[in-house]
Amino acid sequence: MKFNFSILLAAAAAAPQALAHYNFERLIVGSTVTGEYEYVRRTTNSNSPVQDVTSNDLRCNVGSFGYAATTKTYKVTAGSTVGFTIRDYIGHPGPLYAYLSKSTTANVNTYDGSGDWFKIYELGVKDFATYTTSMTWLSDGFKNYTFTIPKAIPNGQYLLRGEHIAVHGSGSIGGAQFYLGCAQLEISGGTGGTPKPVGKIPGIYSATDPGIYFNPYWPPVTNYTMPGPAVYKESIDNVAIHNVVYKRTVASILDSSDNCVVES
After folding, report:
1. pLDDT surpasses 90 at 7
2. For the chain, how many structural domains are there in total?
3. NADP among the record's keywords (predicted)?
4. Tell me, what CATH number does 172's domain have?
5. What pLDDT is recorded for position 241?
6. CB 58 within 8 A of CB 180
7. pLDDT value at position 234?
8. Domain that holds residue 165
Protein backbone atom coordinates (compact mmCIF):
# COMPACT_ATOMS: atom_id res chain seq x y z
CA MET A 1 0.00 0.00 0.00
CA LYS A 2 2.79 2.41 0.89
CA PHE A 3 4.69 1.57 -2.27
CA ASN A 4 1.64 2.06 -4.46
CA PHE A 5 0.89 5.43 -2.90
CA SER A 6 4.43 6.66 -3.52
CA ILE A 7 4.17 5.57 -7.16
CA LEU A 8 0.91 7.48 -7.53
CA LEU A 9 2.44 10.62 -6.05
CA ALA A 10 5.42 10.46 -8.38
CA ALA A 11 3.24 9.83 -11.42
CA ALA A 12 0.90 12.67 -10.56
CA ALA A 13 3.81 15.07 -10.23
CA ALA A 14 5.42 13.95 -13.48
CA ALA A 15 2.31 14.08 -15.67
CA PRO A 16 2.10 17.86 -16.25
CA GLN A 17 5.84 18.54 -16.49
CA ALA A 18 5.82 19.55 -20.15
CA LEU A 19 3.13 22.14 -19.43
CA ALA A 20 4.43 23.36 -16.09
CA HIS A 21 7.58 25.27 -17.08
CA TYR A 22 7.65 28.98 -16.32
CA ASN A 23 9.87 32.04 -16.15
CA PHE A 24 10.26 35.45 -14.49
CA GLU A 25 9.63 38.07 -17.15
CA ARG A 26 8.21 41.27 -15.59
CA LEU A 27 9.41 43.41 -12.71
CA ILE A 28 6.81 44.61 -10.19
CA VAL A 29 7.37 47.88 -8.28
CA GLY A 30 4.56 48.77 -5.90
CA SER A 31 1.36 48.38 -7.92
CA THR A 32 3.18 48.86 -11.24
CA VAL A 33 3.82 45.87 -13.47
CA THR A 34 6.48 46.72 -16.04
CA GLY A 35 6.73 45.44 -19.60
CA GLU A 36 7.85 41.97 -20.58
CA TYR A 37 11.66 41.88 -20.33
CA GLU A 38 11.72 45.66 -20.03
CA TYR A 39 13.67 45.61 -16.75
CA VAL A 40 14.29 41.86 -16.56
CA ARG A 41 17.09 40.38 -18.63
CA ARG A 42 15.75 38.20 -21.40
CA THR A 43 16.92 34.58 -21.61
CA THR A 44 17.60 32.29 -24.55
CA ASN A 45 16.36 29.41 -22.41
CA SER A 46 12.67 30.05 -23.14
CA ASN A 47 10.77 28.77 -20.08
CA SER A 48 13.17 25.91 -19.35
CA PRO A 49 15.07 25.51 -16.08
CA VAL A 50 18.76 25.45 -15.23
CA GLN A 51 19.79 22.17 -13.61
CA ASP A 52 23.58 22.45 -13.24
CA VAL A 53 24.33 24.18 -9.93
CA THR A 54 27.97 24.71 -11.01
CA SER A 55 27.03 26.71 -14.12
CA ASN A 56 27.25 30.50 -14.48
CA ASP A 57 23.78 30.22 -16.03
CA LEU A 58 22.48 29.83 -12.48
CA ARG A 59 23.07 33.55 -11.94
CA CYS A 60 20.44 35.04 -14.25
CA ASN A 61 19.57 32.22 -16.71
CA VAL A 62 20.98 31.08 -20.03
CA GLY A 63 22.09 33.83 -22.42
CA SER A 64 20.82 36.65 -20.21
CA PHE A 65 24.08 38.60 -20.08
CA GLY A 66 23.81 39.07 -23.83
CA TYR A 67 20.67 41.14 -23.21
CA ALA A 68 22.03 43.18 -20.28
CA ALA A 69 22.96 46.22 -22.36
CA THR A 70 19.45 46.56 -23.80
CA THR A 71 17.64 45.97 -20.49
CA LYS A 72 16.45 49.08 -18.65
CA THR A 73 17.38 49.81 -15.04
CA TYR A 74 14.53 50.72 -12.67
CA LYS A 75 15.14 53.37 -9.99
CA VAL A 76 13.66 52.31 -6.64
CA THR A 77 13.94 53.34 -3.01
CA ALA A 78 15.14 50.99 -0.30
CA GLY A 79 12.10 49.76 1.61
CA SER A 80 9.98 49.59 -1.55
CA THR A 81 7.82 46.61 -2.44
CA VAL A 82 9.08 44.86 -5.56
CA GLY A 83 8.65 41.45 -7.17
CA PHE A 84 8.20 39.44 -10.33
CA THR A 85 5.39 38.12 -12.47
CA ILE A 86 5.65 34.46 -13.35
CA ARG A 87 4.62 33.15 -16.74
CA ASP A 88 2.49 31.18 -16.67
CA TYR A 89 2.48 30.15 -12.99
CA ILE A 90 4.53 28.08 -10.58
CA GLY A 91 3.52 24.60 -11.65
CA HIS A 92 6.01 22.55 -9.63
CA PRO A 93 6.59 22.08 -5.88
CA GLY A 94 9.47 23.83 -4.17
CA PRO A 95 10.80 26.92 -2.37
CA LEU A 96 10.69 30.47 -3.72
CA TYR A 97 13.48 33.03 -3.22
CA ALA A 98 14.78 36.51 -4.00
CA TYR A 99 18.42 37.61 -3.95
CA LEU A 100 20.29 40.90 -4.45
CA SER A 101 23.81 41.46 -5.78
CA LYS A 102 25.43 44.91 -5.87
CA SER A 103 27.06 45.60 -9.19
CA THR A 104 30.86 45.54 -9.15
CA THR A 105 30.90 47.71 -12.27
CA ALA A 106 29.82 51.33 -12.63
CA ASN A 107 26.79 50.30 -14.69
CA VAL A 108 24.71 47.21 -13.91
CA ASN A 109 24.30 46.75 -17.68
CA THR A 110 27.89 45.50 -17.73
CA TYR A 111 27.66 43.40 -14.56
CA ASP A 112 27.71 39.62 -15.03
CA GLY A 113 26.61 38.67 -11.51
CA SER A 114 30.00 37.33 -10.45
CA GLY A 115 30.02 39.34 -7.21
CA ASP A 116 28.41 38.59 -3.86
CA TRP A 117 24.73 37.65 -3.53
CA PHE A 118 22.55 37.81 -0.43
CA LYS A 119 19.08 36.42 0.12
CA ILE A 120 16.27 38.86 0.98
CA TYR A 121 13.20 36.62 0.75
CA GLU A 122 12.21 32.98 1.05
CA LEU A 123 8.95 31.04 1.05
CA GLY A 124 8.89 27.36 1.90
CA VAL A 125 6.68 24.49 2.98
CA LYS A 126 2.99 24.94 3.78
CA ASP A 127 2.15 21.41 4.94
CA PHE A 128 4.41 18.41 5.31
CA ALA A 129 3.49 14.98 4.01
CA THR A 130 1.59 12.20 5.76
CA TYR A 131 1.00 8.60 4.72
CA THR A 132 -2.02 9.73 2.70
CA THR A 133 -1.17 13.29 1.60
CA SER A 134 1.79 14.83 -0.19
CA MET A 135 3.79 17.87 0.89
CA THR A 136 2.45 21.26 -0.22
CA TRP A 137 4.23 24.58 -0.71
CA LEU A 138 3.19 28.17 -0.02
CA SER A 139 4.16 29.16 -3.57
CA ASP A 140 1.97 26.55 -5.30
CA GLY A 141 0.21 28.15 -8.27
CA PHE A 142 1.72 31.62 -7.81
CA LYS A 143 1.49 33.91 -10.85
CA ASN A 144 3.48 36.66 -9.13
CA TYR A 145 5.10 37.46 -5.81
CA THR A 146 6.30 40.56 -4.00
CA PHE A 147 8.63 41.37 -1.13
CA THR A 148 10.46 44.34 0.41
CA ILE A 149 13.88 45.69 -0.50
CA PRO A 150 15.74 45.97 2.82
CA LYS A 151 16.64 49.48 3.97
CA ALA A 152 19.99 48.58 5.53
CA ILE A 153 21.90 48.23 2.27
CA PRO A 154 24.32 50.52 0.40
CA ASN A 155 22.94 52.66 -2.40
CA GLY A 156 23.87 51.68 -5.92
CA GLN A 157 22.98 49.47 -8.84
CA TYR A 158 21.94 45.88 -8.24
CA LEU A 159 20.75 42.71 -9.85
CA LEU A 160 17.53 41.43 -8.28
CA ARG A 161 17.24 37.68 -8.79
CA GLY A 162 13.99 35.75 -8.50
CA GLU A 163 14.24 31.99 -8.19
CA HIS A 164 12.02 28.97 -7.72
CA ILE A 165 13.58 25.55 -7.10
CA ALA A 166 11.32 22.79 -8.41
CA VAL A 167 11.93 19.64 -6.37
CA HIS A 168 9.65 17.12 -8.08
CA GLY A 169 12.75 15.47 -9.61
CA SER A 170 15.01 15.85 -6.59
CA GLY A 171 15.20 12.11 -6.00
CA SER A 172 18.21 12.03 -8.33
CA ILE A 173 21.33 14.19 -8.32
CA GLY A 174 20.85 16.96 -10.86
CA GLY A 175 17.10 16.42 -10.90
CA ALA A 176 16.13 19.68 -9.18
CA GLN A 177 15.09 22.44 -11.58
CA PHE A 178 15.99 26.11 -11.07
CA TYR A 179 13.63 28.65 -12.64
CA LEU A 180 15.03 32.17 -12.41
CA GLY A 181 15.43 35.65 -13.80
CA CYS A 182 17.21 38.92 -12.97
CA ALA A 183 15.99 42.51 -12.97
CA GLN A 184 18.26 45.55 -13.05
CA LEU A 185 17.75 48.10 -10.25
CA GLU A 186 19.24 51.35 -9.06
CA ILE A 187 18.53 51.60 -5.33
CA SER A 188 18.61 54.86 -3.38
CA GLY A 189 17.61 55.77 0.17
CA GLY A 190 19.50 52.90 1.76
CA THR A 191 20.97 53.39 5.22
CA GLY A 192 24.15 51.48 4.43
CA GLY A 193 25.23 48.34 6.18
CA THR A 194 26.95 45.13 5.21
CA PRO A 195 24.47 42.52 4.02
CA LYS A 196 25.35 38.99 5.11
CA PRO A 197 25.67 36.11 4.76
CA VAL A 198 26.79 36.39 1.16
CA GLY A 199 27.83 33.87 -1.45
CA LYS A 200 28.81 33.46 -5.06
CA ILE A 201 26.64 32.03 -7.81
CA PRO A 202 27.54 29.36 -8.63
CA GLY A 203 28.63 28.36 -5.15
CA ILE A 204 25.64 28.90 -2.87
CA TYR A 205 24.21 25.48 -3.73
CA SER A 206 25.58 21.97 -3.97
CA ALA A 207 23.90 19.22 -5.99
CA THR A 208 23.79 17.13 -2.81
CA ASP A 209 22.34 19.75 -0.44
CA PRO A 210 19.54 18.11 1.58
CA GLY A 211 16.93 20.54 0.22
CA ILE A 212 18.02 19.85 -3.37
CA TYR A 213 18.75 16.11 -3.34
CA PHE A 214 16.07 14.12 -1.48
CA ASN A 215 13.11 11.87 -2.24
CA PRO A 216 10.09 14.19 -2.28
CA TYR A 217 7.61 11.29 -2.43
CA TRP A 218 8.59 8.52 -0.05
CA PRO A 219 8.94 8.17 2.87
CA PRO A 220 6.67 11.12 3.76
CA VAL A 221 8.73 14.31 4.07
CA THR A 222 8.42 15.67 7.63
CA ASN A 223 11.16 18.32 7.60
CA TYR A 224 12.93 20.38 4.97
CA THR A 225 16.19 22.33 4.98
CA MET A 226 16.01 25.47 2.86
CA PRO A 227 18.92 25.54 0.37
CA GLY A 228 21.30 28.47 0.21
CA PRO A 229 22.27 31.12 2.74
CA ALA A 230 20.00 32.45 5.46
CA VAL A 231 17.91 35.52 4.73
CA TYR A 232 19.76 38.78 5.47
CA LYS A 233 18.60 39.71 8.97
CA GLU A 234 17.47 43.17 7.85
CA SER A 235 15.01 41.38 5.53
CA ILE A 236 13.44 39.31 8.30
CA ASP A 237 9.98 40.77 7.58
CA ASN A 238 10.12 38.80 4.34
CA VAL A 239 10.05 35.48 6.17
CA ALA A 240 8.22 34.59 9.34
CA ILE A 241 10.67 31.92 10.45
CA HIS A 242 14.41 32.63 10.20
CA ASN A 243 15.39 29.05 11.07
CA VAL A 244 16.48 27.23 7.91
CA VAL A 245 14.69 24.03 8.98
CA TYR A 246 10.90 24.18 8.64
CA LYS A 247 9.30 22.03 11.34
CA ARG A 248 6.32 19.77 10.78
CA THR A 249 4.16 21.84 13.14
CA VAL A 250 4.35 24.88 10.86
CA ALA A 251 1.09 25.08 8.92
CA SER A 252 1.77 28.38 7.18
CA ILE A 253 4.43 31.06 7.11
CA LEU A 254 2.96 33.98 5.23
CA ASP A 255 -0.63 34.77 4.38
CA SER A 256 -2.00 34.96 0.85
CA SER A 257 -1.57 38.73 0.67
CA ASP A 258 2.03 38.15 -0.35
CA ASN A 259 0.72 36.76 -3.63
CA CYS A 260 -1.56 39.71 -4.36
CA VAL A 261 -0.52 42.24 -6.96
CA VAL A 262 -2.15 44.40 -9.59
CA GLU A 263 -1.48 42.80 -12.95
CA SER A 264 -1.30 44.62 -16.25
Report:
1. no
2. 1
3. no
4. 2.70.50.70
5. 37
6. yes
7. 83
8. 2-259
